[in-house]
Amino acid sequence: MFYCSLRSEEAFSPSMSYFRSLHQALAKPVVTSPLSPLRPRWQQLVLAGVAAAVPLLLVTVFRDLLAASAFLLFWSGVTLAAWYGGPLAGTLAGVLVFLGANFLLKPALPTFNGTPSGLIHTGALALSVLLVATRRNREDQLWQQREWFQTTLSSIDEGVITTDLNGTILYANAAAAALTGCPPASLLGQPVQRVLALVSADSGHPVENPVQKVLRANAAFVIPEDTVLIASGGQEKAVAGTASPIRSRQDRLIGAALVLRDVTEQRRVESARRASETYARRVLDSLAAFVGVMTPDGILIEANRAALQAANLTPDDVLGKPFEETYWWSYAPEVQSRLREAITRAAQGEIVRYDVNVRAAEGRLITIDFMIVPMFDPDGRITYLVPSAIEITARKQIEQQLQAQANILTQIKDAIITIDTEQRVTYLNEAAAEQYRVERQVALGQRLADIYQNVWDSAGQEQQADRELATTGVWKGRTVHIRHDGSSLHVESTVSVLRDTAGRPIGRLGIIRDITPYVEAEEALRQSKEREREQRIFAEALRDITMTINRNLALDTVLDSILDNVSRVVPHDASLILLADGHIASVRRIRGFQGELARAAIETLEFTIAQTPILHQMQASRQPLIVPNIRTYSRWQGVPHADEIQAYVGVPIVLQDETIGFLNLLSETPDFFNEEDAERLRVFAEPIAIAIQNARLYEQARALAALEERQRLARDLHDAISQTLFSTSLIAQSLPRLWARSPERALSQLEEIERLTRGAQAEMRVLLLELRPDQLLKTTLREQYSQLVKVLQGRKRVKVNLTIEEAVPIPPDIQIALYRITQEALNNIIKHARATEVDIVLSSQNGRVTLTVRDNGQGFDPSQAASGLGITSMHERAAKIGADLTVVSQPGSGTTITLTWQGDAE
Question: Is residue 78 classed as helix, strand or coil in its secondary structure?
Answer without folding.
Answer: helix
